[in-house]
Amino acid sequence: MKIIIGSKNPTKITAVKNSFQHLESEFISLDVQSGVSEQPFSDEETIKGAINRAKGALEQGNGDIGIGLEGGVHETSHGLLLCNWGALATLDMEPIVAGGARFLLPEEVAVRLRAGEELGPVMEDYAKKKNVSKQEGAVGVFTNGMVNRAEVFTHVMKLLVGQFTYQQKLKAH
Ligand SMILES: O=P(O)(O)OP(=O)(O)OP(=O)(O)OC[C@H]1O[C@@H](n2cnc3c(O)ncnc32)[C@H](O)[C@@H]1O
């Protein structure tokens, strides 16, 4: 099966490879437009970005499966949540969607995002290191390394691949 990943972010590529281990697969990663803001600011917008990336990956990579994984934030009355969403697209089905673990960002980070900054650069500044979004992620920083970004996306991917194989099973009957 030819699986096209709509991102070159290593945390996302690792997650996709982790979750298709049981299937004979070829992986291709492409930079695909999310079609939403650089910093999605709601579940709705983040889901849309994931679906656009999955569909774009499928089309641009001419694959069997397109995967879109998207990080965003979502405002609540308790504070700003970090959220992660994923979508799996095929040629013959509506995209499958799943979301990952979420937690409240510290207020000093949240205020900067509300003022229009992007989480990637804000985290580099906050953690005093480069490429946080390509390594442990904000989740890795704020959980003291207990959960990293690739693990969060791996869980999203398992929800997607699990639903995909379930639907394949239903079709076969
Ligand atoms: O290369 P792509 O696939 O675009 O990966 P990305 O990490 O840059 O882009 P996302 O669309 O997933 O995330 C939107 C923005 O939020 C940032 N972001 C999301 N989750 C993050 C995390 O856990 N740690 C640091 N930055 C994060 C990210 O760097 C972007 O600036």
UniProtKB/TrEMBL annotation:
Leading EC class: hydrolase
Reaction(s) catalysed by this chain's protein: XTP + H2O = XDP + phosphate + H(+); ITP + H2O = IDP + phosphate + H(+)
GO annotation, biological process: nucleotide metabolic process
Co-factor binding details: Binds 1 divalent metal cation per subunit; can use either Mg(2+) or Mn(2+).
Function per UniProt: Phosphatase that hydrolyzes non-canonical purine nucleotides such as XTP and ITP to their respective diphosphate derivatives. Probably excludes non-canonical purines from DNA/RNA precursor pool, thus preventing their incorporation into DNA/RNA and avoiding chromosomal lesions.
Binding partners and assembly: Homodimer.
Protein's name according to its UniProt entry: Probable inosine/xanthosine triphosphatase
Species name: Neobacillus rhizophilus
